[in-house]
Amino acid sequence: MRQVHAGEHVDGGVYVDIADATIWHFTAGEAYGPPTVLLHGLFASASSWGTQIPAFLDAGRHLFVPERSGHGHSPDLPGDFSLQRIVERTIVYLETVVGRPAHLVGWADGAAVALLVARERPDLVHRLVFVGGYLNAAGRAADAFIDQVTRRDPVTVDYLRIYYDTTSPDGPEHFDAVFDKAVRMLTTEPECEIAAFAGVEVPTLVVVADRGLVRLEHALELARTLPRGRLAVLPGTHILPVESPELFNPLVLSFLAADPPSVWEFG
């Protein structure tokens, strides 16, 4: 196990203190206009946005890409993973590190984190992109990867272990503890009613794969429930940002640049 300290630079990013945690994050781009914060999900890290970061920077976005505790370069903390704790830390990160209202782009349960932040602190969010996420178990479709993870398929576990071992300051011996916590969270959270977000006025683009782990009906209900919600279904996709950046990137960038009108006026 290696101790990390705020201000320490590793692999192009830097450690920062937020609330009760020290996390690693990457930031780059010109500091004008609303910044864009990319929020990864379980079993992921900043590297999962690898096909977005160059394109978003080329488009003039000021990016912040934090890694959760126990993920990527960020050390783990005692206790189970909890959606509410992640939301609380994300709010502190936006307040103290980003320092001004931002666009949030959340993927998988990072999408649920982004939406919960927008509900609790709408003053911190300009626009929101909800990518390949669901809000409750009923919204999740059958998925081979989730099945392999929850039954601890050895090939899948070894695949996840390789990246963890090369980046985590906690060392390879801590992987099993993090994996167990991630599986517990995956099987219990999020569990939110869609109707509970009917008051979220932040312009939100719900992006879903036509062959992903989210039921299309669930994504449609969410987009219709949000007062300023939009729905985009990308064809022939499963893991949206990774598989189809040529579709995903311009879609998200155009939405962040301007919220389309709810009603077109003619004449």
UniProtKB/TrEMBL annotation:
Chaperone found in the keyword field: no
Positions of the AB hydrolase-1 domain: 37-249
> Superkingdom of this entry's organism?
Bacteria
- Which keywords does this chain's UniProt record carry? Hydrolase
Would you tell me the protein name for this molecule?
Alpha/beta hydrolase
A molecular function GO annotation: hydrolase activity
Note the Gene3D superfamilies from the entry. Answer: alpha/beta hydrolase (3.40.50.1820)
What PANTHER family is this protein classified in? ALPHA_BETA-HYDROLASES SUPERFAMILY PROTEIN, HYDROLASE
Which lineage is the organism of this entry classified under, starting from the top rank?
Bacteria, Bacillati, Actinomycetota, Actinomycetes, Mycobacteriales
Q: Which Pfam families match?
A: Abhydrolase_6
Q: What's the source species for this entry?
A: Gordonia lacunae
